[in-house]
């Protein structure tokens, strides 16, 4: 009876483990051995099939893959040529549009002239038949400009020629060169007569603001101003103020200062910032 049982069947596994402990683990391994054998066989068959097909793949597929990049290169060259032609056409169209948009240049108008006849005593043989002598009445009646010779291919309107020349003449603006202002130089600017005369000028010309006087406001206002290279007073600003009214009066009196002796750098007159404290003090306070 045992000979009729398939060794790979479940019945054979049950006969072998009849009366034995099936929970030990060997029963499960023996039961699943058939499935493992089948899987192993399938894997072996697949490996053998791949080993047989590999030379065929190398001999057929790879040569075609090598030819494909050349085709792609040729196609890319063709596409590049087409793109270059398209770009050239676009450039030609842009050039044509640019030429069409160019403003029409008006031809320069030339003013007709009439030769002014000068009287001179000469021999008959020296007189040219081509010279036409115009009378004074003819010269008075004509509106054509006077010149050294006759010219009758332009216009008699002087205003047209003048307007045309004004249209074609373009003046180029020169860039403004900003003058450098120094903070310190070899020879600082000087007030004529020195600082003593400068203080006298300030005390003589300062007008104490009435509001500040009523409110008993006094103190020092520090002003900075530019002495240009010609000695004149340039920009004026308050760097340390005391009161709005006092600040305005200090700026006003500084702007009235006479010309300074300009400062110098390397022997050349230059613009320099000058700092001046202006003191406001009430009498009897």
Descriptive notes:
With 285 residues, the protein is α/β, with parallel strands linked by helices. It has helices at residues 10-16, 26-101, 136-141, 158-168, 195-205, 210-214, 244-255, and strands spanning 113-115, 145-147, 181-182, 219-227, 233-240, 263-265, 268-280. The strands form two sheets. Strands 3, 4, 5, 6 and 7 form a five-stranded mixed β-sheet that branches. Strands 1-2 form a two-stranded parallel sheet.
Task: Write a short abstract of this structure.
This protein is α/β, with parallel strands linked by helices. The protein has helices at residues 10-16, 26-101, 136-141, 158-168, 195-205, 210-214, 244-255; strands at 113-115, 145-147, 181-182, 219-227, 233-240, 263-265, 268-280. The strands form 2 sheets. Strands 3, 4, 5, 6 and 7 form a 5-stranded mixed β-sheet that branches. Strands 1-2 form a two-stranded parallel sheet.
